[in-house]
Amino acid sequence: MKKQIENDDQYEKARIAVLELAEYLDNPDPLDEAVEKKQLIYDRTTDLMLLYSRGHNVKEYPAYYKPKYDRAGWAYQE
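The structure assignment produced for this chain is given below.
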């Protein structure tokens, strides 16, 4: 099952979670064994947010963004 952000509400929840994770990762608890896992979650969530954002741009302005993203080799959510 491939995870993706489906709508603006999920995007907003992801944004809030990323901000909280970033704050934690900026000064992690040295005794927390889950720091690496939290970093992986942060990285994956920001990747999903970027795909969703680019996909939103392509839906709103396909003639402008689609060729630019394709030319740059940047993925976006269809």
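Interim note for the steering committee: The longest helix spans residues 35-60. The radius of gyration is 15 Å.
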